[in-house]
Amino acid sequence: MRASSRETVHAIDPTAHISPLADIEDSTRGSLLSVGAGTRIDAFVKIKFAGGTADIVIGGACQINSGCMLYSGNGISIGDGVLIAANVVLAPTNHATADLGVPIREQGFAPSRGGIHIADDVWIGAGAVLLDGARVGRGAVVGALALVRGEVEPYAIVAGNPARVVGSRRR
């Protein structure tokens, strides 16, 4: 564990490897980053504590590749053995936009849809975007450039914008 001058604590397993070129911000609201055993976070991954007060929990034996962006928002939970390709965005937040009399940047955030939950043994392809309320079941595959806003069943293969089932890993 390490603490910054703002008393932010990150729980990073000593066997995890985080590139010195990754950019992990400190939370000003007390959110926690937890990284499990054997997980690798590559160069140019950005972890930003913004849009909410929830934690980012990354399981063991995961790989998060270059260019990925993770916002804390309403929380991110990543299981064990998850592989995330380059340039994936995990954005568990919803901007409020309904009040026409207030500029969007001043409206803050809409109610949570429950954050992002990714189960064990998942592959997320390059450039995919997962939004607040995304639930990716065990063993699922999210194709490159897919947009996930809801539930992906276990072992499903999804692709497209919005993501739709295109196959299954089941025999």
Mean residue pLDDT: 92
- What is the chain-wise order of helices and strands? EEEEEEEEEEEEEEEEEEEEEE
Order of strands in the sheet with most strands: 1-2-5-8-11-14-17-20
Q: What ranges have pLDDT less than 50 throughout 5 or more consecutive residues? A: 1-7
Strand count, sense and barrel status of the largest sheet are:
8 strands, mixed
CA radius of gyration is 16 Å
Strand tally, please? 22
Shape: globular
- Number of DSSP helical runs: 0
Into which percent range does the helicity of residues fall?
A: under 10%
SSE-based structural type: mainly beta
Distance between the termini: 42 Å
The fraction of residues in strands falls at: 25-35%
Sum this structure up briefly.
The protein has 171 residues and is an all-beta fold.
Task: Give a written overview of the molecule.
This protein is 0% helix and 35% strand. It has no helices and 22 strands. The strands form three sheets. The chain has an eight-stranded mixed sheet, with no helix packed on it. An eight-stranded mixed sheet has the order 3-6-9-12-15-18-21-22, with no helix packed on it. It starts with a strand and ends with a strand.
Question: Helices and strands in order, then pairings?
Answer:
Layout lengths: L1 E2 L5 E4 L4 E2 L4 E2 L8 E3 L4 E2 L4 E3 L7 E3 L4 E2 L4 E3 L4 E3 L4 E2 L4 E3 L24 E3 L4 E2 L4 E3 L3 E2 L4 E2 L4 E2 L2 E2 L3 E4 L4 E5 L3
Parallel strand pairs: 2-5, 3-6, 4-7, 5-8, 6-9, 7-10, 8-11, 9-12, 10-13, 11-14, 12-15, 13-16, 14-17, 15-18, 16-19, 17-20, 18-21
Antiparallel strand pairs: 1-2, 21-22
